[in-house]
Amino acid sequence: MLRGLLKGLKDLIYPNCCLVCKNRIPPAGQQQLICAGCWDLFEKNLPPFCANCGRHLDSQAIEKNACPSCSKCKANFYFDRAFSPCAYTGSIKKLIHEFKYSGKDYLGKPLGKLMHTFIRDYQLPIEHLDFIIPIPLHRSRQREREFNQAEILSQEVAREFDKKALTGVLIRVKRTQTQTELTFRERCQNVEKSFFVTKPELIKDTNLLLIDDVLTTGATSNEAAKCLKSAGARKVLLLTLAS
User: In CATH, which of 3.40.109.10, 3.40.50.2020, 3.40.640.10, 3.90.770.10 is domain 44-242?
Assistant: First the structure.
């Protein structure tokens, strides 16, 4: 009885509010950080998917089987397929920004749920993948941020599907400049030779799921996949939260 009274008092003083709309979450959903209304408003990537980056294809792009971004850059990606549950816009963009730059590592749980729900809904071949590998941060950037958002998302997916997330196998050896204002070709040059595999014997002849938070041009993920395949990986699938 006392526990219930204390919980009621806590909810009265510190009501559980949605991180997106800031409205109070009803008692039935008190364990959630995002209300059902905002959850439904996330812009989802829906099939058909671009064969390269996994973004939704509109009617004009279906014939080429590639989205305008991939058609423009004409990239040959080293990852075999890429998928993203959400479009990088609106509320999901805001949450990812808070996740990465405002120290809100607890957002990894609801954001990770978007990823493993997508895996189930679209039957990604998770059972045929040997390990999950997060895109690493350079050690100096991780010190600044205090955590790697891709690593947190990887752990959420690994836990859900009883897989092992390998951290420290793929490392970032070069701190690159920000990619925001760069073209695709400039981004590729910027991240060239940024990654190193510390234990190639662990990933030789394996199928891997590479995880990051956002895919923009794919230059960073592509360089990471290239490094993994050079070290002996057989297949590399890419899953990002948004693209």
Answer: 3.40.50.2020
Share of the chain above pLDDT 70, in %: 91
Calculate what percentage of the chain has a pLDDT beyond 90: 56
Q: Is 14 helix (H, G, I), strand (E, B) or coil?
A: coil
Q: What is the mean pLDDT of the chain?
A: 87
With a CB cutoff of 8 Å and minimum separation 6, the contacts of 159 are: none
* Dihedral sign of CA atoms 5, 10, 16, 22 in order: positive
Answer yes or no: are the C-beta atoms of 239 and 208 closer than 8 Å.
no
Whether residue 10 is predicted with pLDDT greater than 50 in this model: the reply is no
Four-residue CA torsion sign, 51, 111, 109, 143: positive
> Is 129's pLDDT higher than 70?
yes
Q: How far apart are CA 171 and CA 225, in angstroms?
A: 12
- Domain ranges for the chain: 1-41, 44-242
DSSP state letter for 203 = H
